[in-house]
Amino acid sequence: MELDISENRLSGEIPSSLGSCTSLENLYMQENSFQGSIPLSLESLRGIKNFELSHNNLSGKILTFLEKFSLMILNLSFNDFEGELPMEGVFANASAISIVGNHRLCGGISELQLPSCITKKSRHKMPLSHILAITAASVLVGAALLSFFTIYLFKKQRTAQSTVPVLKESFLKVSYEKLLKATDGFSSANLIGFGSFGSVYRGILVQDREFVAAIKVLNLQNRGAIKSFMAECETLRNIRHRNLVRIITSCSSVDFHGNEFKALVYEFMPNGSLERWLNASLETNDGQNEQQRLNLLQRINIAIDVACALDYLHHQCQKPIIHCDLKPSNILLDREMVAHIGDFGLARFFPELTNPNQSSSIGVRGTIGYVAPGNNSLPFF
Questions:
Q1: Which of 108, 207, 185, 101 is nearest to 146 (CA)?
Q2: How far apart are CA 246 and CA 332, in angstroms?
Q3: Quick one: pLDDT at residue 291?
């Protein structure tokens, strides 16, 4: 049995009546605004396998009854839990739990690298000046270490999962008919984006098992669409980086009416574009969009991800590649909020300049918009 109420802007405390749903195996409550602690009544959910509570406002101690469950995944990240982390059951497997963003936790297994919990063992009184000096030094060192390890663990854990299964063949073979079926006839209900050269649909494909993909269908009536299709194929076939949207396959065929059909199939990014997150965070200040706000750590990591991708394109490819249309709508976020650069329809291989005074023949490309003078950083700080 499964219950998925994620991303619904729900608030208040978690209902204790959930404890009566003893047949639950999967419980997804992430990205809401639940408050308070985990109810004791949930101790009866002994059969639960996947428990997602990330990106809420939950607090208090993490209850030890969770050690007794046969959990495969326990995600408690980005809440405000505190106290000692249990060490048995699922808590003994660092790859099965996520506690990132809970800065008041301590203890736990060594792989999680949390600070040790403070225990009251000494009965000897210490001069107040010594106590203040030790406290100040501990706070400074602890803050530095905690910041370092938090960023390190966050980067490590959010790249551990892949939203697309490993394919046995280098490229999945798809036809117009298969893409038509995957998108329910290119239904507007599955439309997730559109641009100058085509529309992007969410589709469900089958290869060993079902998986979600983003399918970009080129509008060949638009001037430059075929050239854009060829540019993306040429650019993406020889590059691979964790911060670039992965292309799964392409389709060049005809539809049922004999018209030319071209499409590109990409890895699906569940958290959409950076533009959507930035706009959502600006909509209101009444707290209703709290779960859509990017915190400072997420903004820093997105900037690092984009910088890593650009460094790879500019300096580590056999031929340097210029994206030519880098903007928030072309920066996509996966389930773990890792940033991926997409849409290489305007990308170009940059020729090596033999003369320092030689200028590039690449003209002005991309979307017309604001760029801060003398600043190449992304405009989301």
A1: 101
A2: 11
A3: 54
Check whether domain 2-113 has CATH 3.80.10.10, yes or no? yes
Nearest to 66 by CA among 76, 77, 55: 76
Cα(295)–Cα(90) distance, integer angstroms: 28
Percent of the chain topping pLDDT 90: 19
Separation between Cα atoms, residue 164 and residue 248, nearest integer Å: 9
Give the burial class of 236: count Cβ atoms within 10 A of its Cβ; 0-12 exposed, 13-18 middle, 19 or more buried: buried
Mean pLDDT over residues 289-313, rounded?
Answer: 84
Q: Say how far apart CA 296 and CA 191 lie, in whole Å.
A: 31
**Active site annotation includes 334:** no
Residue pair 280/289 in contact (Cβ under 8 Å)? The answer is: yes
Instruction: Write the CATH number of the domain with boundaries 274-349.
Output: 1.10.510.10
3-state secondary structure of 202: strand
Amino acid at 124: H
Count Cβ neighbours within 10 Å for each residue of 83-122 and write b for 16 or more, e otherwise.
ebbbeebbbeebeebbbbbbeebeebbeebebbeeeeeee
User: For residue 1, which of 32, 22, 20, 18 has the smallest C-alpha distance?
Assistant: 22
Name the segment(s) of the chain with CATH classification 3.80.10.10. 2-113
Name the 3-class secondary structure at 92.
helix
Give residue 219's pLDDT band: very low, low, confident or very high (50, 70, 90). confident
pTM, 2 dp: 0.48
Q: Which of these is catalytic: 305, 325, 334, 343? A: 325
Cβ 17 vs Cβ 44: under 8 Å:
no
